[in-house]
Amino acid sequence: MWLYYYYGDITTKTLENESEGIVTEVKYKEINGTSYKKGTSDDVISVLEDVRGSNVRVRIFIGDTKTGKSWLEEHDIEGYVGRSTGTIKIPILIHNIRSHGGGGILDHCIIRIIEMKTHRVLYSHSKFHTGELTIKECKIPREEVDGKMTFYRAEVYVDGGIHARFTTMKKAQRWVKKISG
């Protein structure tokens, strides 16, 4: 059961699961019918509202909103901004214009938004960064699904620690370019 409390422009929604004694309380800002987590920047909300329901495909970078450091997410970060249905209508990321739904956006963790077609930055945290990304050559064996042996040829380090391996140097370079925004 959802209970609604209003504190100015902040709505508190409480979910109570009586059988397990669990109470969850989440505070939202409701803008144009879309509920954004209380900690979401007004600038982020403005950009998401501008592109919601439009034909603008975006890439969303999420991370630490205090430091601006990216979490280097690779999945569920590109698409069209829409809105869920149901009791709490949250912003969702829709994979393509033919899709009928998508996953909820961690709107309170957004540190950068870029338009995919032009690579124009629509929003960026003042301290946005990915950490130090370094590509190094390597030759590490890997077994394919069919049992064939191949090699990783490149490694990407983030702040000195290994983060990813790639079968070609070009793939590593493309990944670094994409993840850097």
Can you characterise this structure?
The protein has 2 domains: 2-124, no CATH class; 133-180, no CATH class. It is 12% helix and 46% strand. It is built from 2 helices and 13 strands.
Radius of gyration: 20 Å
How much helical structure, as a percent, in the residues?
Answer: 10-25%
> How many strand segments?
13
N-to-C span = 41 Å
| Beta-strand residue fraction | over 45%
The chain-level mean pLDDT equals: 88
Return the domain count.
2
Uncertain stretches: 1-8
Largest sheet, described in full? 6 strands, antiparallel
Tell me, what's the shape? Answer: elongated
Number of continuous helical runs: 2
Order of helices and strands: EEEEHEEEEEEEEEH
Query: How are the strands of the biggest sheet laid out side by side?
Result: 8-7-6-5-9-10
Class computed from helices, strands and strand pairing: mainly beta
What's the structural blueprint in terms of helices and strands?
Blueprint: E1 2-7, E2 10-17, E3 22-31, E4 34-37, H1 42-51, E5 58-62, E6 78-83, E7 91-94, E8 102-104, E9 110-115, E10 121-124, E11 133-143, E12 149-158, E13 161-166, H2 169-180
Antiparallel strand pairs: 1-2, 2-3, 3-4, 5-6, 5-9, 6-7, 7-8, 9-10, 11-12, 12-13
